[in-house]
Fold these 4 entries.
Entry 1:
Amino acid sequence: MMESSVLLIIALFLPFIAASGINLFSGQPNLREAVSLITSLILSVCLFEMGNRLLIGEVVEARLFEFIPGIALKFHLEPLGIIYALVAAILWFVTTIYSLGYMRANGKRNQTRFYIFFSIAIGCSLGIAFSANLFTMFIFYEALTFSTYPLVTHKGDEKSRKSGKIYLMMLVGASIAFFLPAIIWTENLAGTLEFTEGGILDQSGLSKLGLVFLLFLFVFGIGKAALMPMHRWLPAAMVAPTPVSALLHAVAVVKAGVFSITKIIFYIFGTHYLDDNSGGFFSTSLLAYIAAFTIICASIIAITKDNLKTRLAYSTIAQLSYIILAASIFSIASVKAAAMHIAAHAVAKITLFFSAGAFTTASGKKNVSELNGIGRKMPLVAIAFLISSLSMIGLPFLAGGESKLLIEHAAEEQNYGWITFVLYLSMVLNAIYYLPISYRAFFMKSKSGKEIVNNIPMQIAITITTIFTITYIFYMDYISKLLEML
């Protein structure tokens, strides 16, 4: 049997090896895309094996370089990381299937570059997932930003370049201005940057005011979480091709943000330490209030947007804040609920973006107001969109409904009744901006008699992710077993 540390290193480097293979077969599209498909499958198998080893109590870690004493590029397997990594790897496979149809049907240029940077982005996501300390997390967090920039600007036009500038300036600016100082301050306080169960700051002597300030340096420094007001880059990035939007919203980028914040809350601050300092408005509870504000505000903005991808972008901003809201309850149960919603949101939101891309590819329609009757011409895609919308709203037994129920239970355990109110209010707002789309698709007459040709690879990908959304209650048991190890 292969050593666990070797398996961890192989998993980390597989996407980067794939990027080289994709470049090698740049002139042979079928082989180029086969590299992505095969690598993502192998990676998924490796990660499941690592997850199983974690479940039997194996310690899986690896150290690559030590730059200075105590500051090393180090990796460690833990429950939150393996869940995020599995989500990224499995959805990489599905997104590659979708991209086969989308990129070719839309005649997109520079497809080799697209697949190369997509693979690199997945590799950076794994680096974040398996980071054993804040230094390693920061290195791969920044690398993820730069590796996704060419994807955001893929079209190469003026609008894409402008959006890419916003993307880069906001994310890099936030991490340099806030995230990096937070890391330096943490090392100064604790003498270590290692992710440690129970946290490393409870004996630091930090005042309550200092604790709140440090917490928000991390939260706003990790701009990928899109917590308001650090959200503007996300709608701007919607100029990218739909597979990139899927990467940004479901597979890697925003998930890297909320995952990093959740991991820092659990392993750097410690839930007990934050909970002990959560009384009053200007306390660690302020994070929950800001997350709740983001949920409601982003949902209201989504209602006003006619462009489908922009509406979905603001939906993502709101849904990400569910994860932050859960983590900010500061209990073991709430961290578990946050991790559950990372997976639940990923499978439903990627289906929504896949469906939006399928509508546009087949009909050229990008706005909600243009989708009248499209459900009759594209029933499979429209049904998938409806199911995923219901999941995002929070219908029981679907992915989003089950994870939101866990957030509600965690809030009730800590006597946060107002969080339950926010959850139900946001469900109403979600219904207001999601259900009219499906109503138009199925019950309003189309103004166009144009024949629509359905794209098989895109439909296969949409079917797979819809099945994931429907069957979440079956595989959430595996996720629960991993989370029991927290």
Entry 2:
Amino acid sequence: SPITTTTYQVTGVDTNGCSNVDSVTIIINALPTINAGTDVAICIGDTAQLQASGGNGYLWTPSAGLSDTTIANPLAFPTVTTTYIVMGTDTNACEGTDTVVVTVNPLPTISAGLTDTVYMCAGDSVQLNATGGTSYVWTPNINITNNTIANPFVFPPVTTTYYVTGTDANSCSNSDSVVVSVFAIPDLSDTVICIGDSIQLTAYGPPGATFTWTPTTSLSNPNIANPYTSTTVTITYTVTVQDTNGCVDTTQITVTAEDKPNAAFTVETTPACDGILAIFDNTSTGADSYLWLFGDGSQSIEIHPTHIFAYESSFTTILNAYSANGCLDTAVFNISSLSFEEQFNLTPPSVLTPNRDGFNDEFRLDLPEAISQCTNIEIFNRWGMKVFESKGQNMGWDGRTTTGAEVPDGTYFYIVDVKGIVKKGSITLMR
């Protein structure tokens, strides 16, 4: 095994004493000079690109934390400091190795302050204090004296979350945040009170805050967050809220006093085939919209509605009358009805004298017009022949057939069907 290129010669002799000579040269190739690159430092969670040179092919070990172990320039992202070995092979299949150290630095522990929230009064300022790094950047870069120092002053007009990114000596960065809570109570929305009612006012403040309402007119308690007012005139209340840090804020609410509408109605009822037909006449004043509750589960928003109530029942009808600002007045009426049969006399007269003297000239039931559409009348002679029929109308029988011919005097038989209630009997016709 020569260490340099060497030519070896061999002389061969056969059995006849003849000889000959040959030679072979062993070439010794130099090992490749493999370079794994300079050592590198990263922050945990980051990556570094390695760069090997001096070979035609490469194999990196260990494989943990590498994007590819068979290329010259893999990405390295170890979670702990790691020494990587690269073996490089040249065109002569000769191998060489080198190492590179990837140092993994921890992230700094950055703190934006001792507490997650700091409090300030509106219009004041508060100083923040970041620790854990060697340089800092605060965001957002508004209402802050200097966003690149550890301890800037901030003066936001509303509650704001400030974020700080701190960088250490190894150029590793981490972040934290702090809420700057600015004491400010929310604005209150103006409202309407219906004269004669009371409404609750509600102001908002942090735990331990005190409340003062002015003027105290018509207030149940001017020193609580949510007093009731029963004012009868339009009034603007101011509420002053003070927190436990001595911060004070005020806001106002205007309560507009409105007259209630006057709800009123009359109702006319008449029997119908499906029930009692109620016709409502709305006589309300000062109202803009209406809601009728009929007491049987149905309702209406019409001004003058009609409604069918079931026979033999009792219902309470309520009219809610609303003004344009939502003030409410209510009117109530109770509606009761007998059974259908108890409403009418369904027994017709027993004698018919169609002599046109205005008395007993027709065989007719004494029913409201609305009942006619569910009334059927049939007239038969003594032999069972139908001489007259009226369906869906309470048409009177004047002693003539449906063709207009007069029938003779005598006894006739009727079948009357009113909404399924059937009455049968006889009638005597005399002229």
Entry 3:
Amino acid sequence: MKVLAKQVISACEYFRIDKIVISPGSRNAPLTIGFSKNKNFETFSIVDERCAGFFALGMAQQTQKPVALVCTSGSALLNY
């Protein structure tokens, strides 16, 4: 796994962010694999970034805890 992906995953563990909404793509594969293999995280795969953003927002409102979003590079981030 890439060093930066390990650091992001460790930071989420440190801050107790345990819910991760992933919009999979080739560029974010190290994060997707890292979060999915780690038992400390509950991951949700949602292909459409617009839906993923609203899904994460609703989950954060219900749990009163932060939810991390993972997307591929490029314009995908703009849809969150």
Entry 4:
Amino acid sequence: MPPVLVYSTYNLLNWRRLDPSGPIALGNIVCLNNFLGGVDEEWFRLVHVSIEAAAGPAMARLEALQEAARKDDVEGMEAHLGAVQGALAEMQRLLSRMGEKCDPAVYYARVRLPMSGWRGNPRLPAGLLYEGVAPEPLQLYGETGAQSSVVAAIDAALGVEHECGWEAYNGVMAELEAFRAQHRAFAAAYIASFAKKEAGGEKGTGGSDFMPALAGFRNTTAAHRLL
């Protein structure tokens, strides 16, 4: 693991339940540690945690979905795809709540900075020198929600070729495309609209050129619908 903040340490390993017997859901989870603190930072991260939890039912079905595809089990495929589609719809619903307590201006000016990394960062154009590690500064991308393995896992699972269950398959692809489109819309509102006012251009949370990448992810997903 590179010596820089990543998605797993920033989000997945940095929360707890308020009620240990309750769900992993907004209202029952809090962050263990924050950088600058405040409602906006806390909410930004907890929305990500809740999305990961909502993805659980989809992750639990992917192996069985592939097995059903190998066996040409149309009924099984449709059942598993329906569960994945439902999970994606819930993930999208949770992502849509980001603006409830995380203001785009506060996110851009305050919440985003500790996650920015040392590559593509106009404040550290040469990178960051790690004394005793390397003689030259290292340029490393920082934390970003794009490091989550959830959507990538669904992408990989849906790469299985089959001739049946098209309607269910396309339903999942539609939700996946909608989730990515919403992610891009939030990135535009929370980063791009502010970055245009600064030198250095549009960079994602971790320092990447994110708008073309997010558009590409969305378009590639749309292109994989079955006709």
